[in-house]
Amino acid sequence: MEYTEVIEMIDKFRDARGWEKYHNLKDLAISVNLEASEILEIFQWKNEQGSLSEEDKIKLKEEIADTLIYLFYMVDKLEMNPYEEIQKKVEINKKRHWKQDK
Ligand SMILES: [Mg+2]
Questions:
Q1: What is the Å distance from ligand 1's center to 40 Cα?
Q2: Those residues with Cβ within 8 angstroms of residue 83's Cβ, 6 or more apart along the chain or in another chain
Q3: DSSP per residue over 27-63, as a string?
Q4: Distance 78 CA to ligand 1 centre (A)
Q5: What structural domains does the chain harbor?
Q6: Alpha-carbon span 34 to 66, nearest angstrom
Q7: Contact, 32 vs 74, CB < 8 A?
Q8: Distance from the CA of 85 to the center of ligand 1, in angstroms?
Q9: Is pTM, for the whole model, over 0.70?
Q10: What is the pLDDT along the chain (102 residues), one digit of tens a residue?
C-alpha cells in the first residue's frame, strides 16, 4: 500500500465517524504521545526486549500503528512530505553528530 492510499484510508475512517472536528494539531500531538505511551506500557516490568511474548509483539505492532496513524494525521494537516522532512533532518543530524557514513 502506498503512502497516499494509507492517508486516504485513515481519512475515510475518521470522516465516517465525524472525528475530523477533534483533529487539531494540539490534540493530535497529545494522541501521538498517548499512543507512544502504550508502546512503553508493553515494556513495563520486563527486563529486556527479548522477553516479549508473541502476544506482546502483536500488541507492540498495533501500538506502533496507532502512533503512526496520529503522526500521519499531523503530517497530512501540515501538508508536509514526510520523506523529504526525514531526509532534511538526517542531513541536520549528520552535521550535528558528524561521522563518516560507511
Ligand atoms: Mg493504542
A1: 11
A2: 3
A3: HHHHHHHHHHHHHHHHHTT-S-GGG--HHHHHHHHHH
A4: 23
A5: 3-96 (1.10.287.1080)
A6: 10
A7: yes
A8: 25
A9: yes
A10: 888 899 999 999 999 999 999 999 999 999 999 999 999 999 988 876 568 899 999 999 999 999 999 999 999 999 999 999 999 999 999 999 888 777
Q: Which residues are near ligand 1, the ion (C-beta closer than 5 Å)?
A: 35, 38, 63, 66
Residue with cell 494525521: 73
Query: Measured in angstroms, how far is the CA atom of residue 81 from the centroid of ligand 1?
Result: 25
Contact yes or no for 28/77 (Cβ under 8 A): yes
